[in-house]
Amino acid sequence: MLEAWHYVALLGAAIAAMAFIKPMNKKKEDAAPVEEMKEMMEHYIYEAEQDYAELVGLVKKSQESAQNSATVYEKKVMGLEEQVELLKQQLQKQQLIYQNNLQSGQAAVDEPDKNINPAASTDIQVPLVTIPAQIEEASATSEWSIEGRYKELFELYNNGRTIESIAKKLAMNKGEVQLIIQLAKQEAKQRG
User: Fold this and answer.
1) pLDDT tens digits along 87-128
2) pLDDT of 161 above 90
3) Residue ranges of the alpha helices (H) in the chain?
4) Contact 130, 154 (CB under 8 A)
5) pLDDT tens track for 65-79
6) Per-position b or e across 36-72, b if 16+ CB within 10 A of its CB
7) Residue 111 gets which letter from DSSP?
């Protein structure tokens, strides 16, 4: 049979084996939360990449939209510049006719030159301009000034409304509101 020291040796070997096996199980248990964390991080990175790709797509669409808008506005501006030139020519002709009529004692001509149509080159319809009998007086009146033409805009502006709120209320672009206000300030400087 076994002697007492054999029992002690067997018991020691069993304890040593248990001590060796127990930490291995613990390592497997500790690895589970690490794996969960790793999966969560991979999922987070995947979602972040999708969000980034979506954001890049939105930025590209926004850039394309802005470029298309800029092209449209550029065409409109070019058309308006042509229209302004035609209107200037018509105004000069009407002024000459008016001066000639004043010198010859005839009544002022109210009918514009039918051969000039400033709206022909663009899709914007603008009526032909007729020159009133007293050009200087009419241009000095407030209804012909920028503030006179945009009364509601300047009422809101003078009441302390922001440019954004004015643009929203009047269904105008913010830049358009700013431009009108700046032009009115320049006009006031020229008069003053």
Assistant:
1) 999 999 998 888 888 887 655 444 555 555 544 444 544 444
2) yes
3) 4-104, 135-140, 146-149, 151-158, 163-170, 174-191
4) no
5) 999 989 999 999 999
6) eeeeeeeeeeeeeeeeeeeeeeeeeeeeeeeeeeeee
7) S
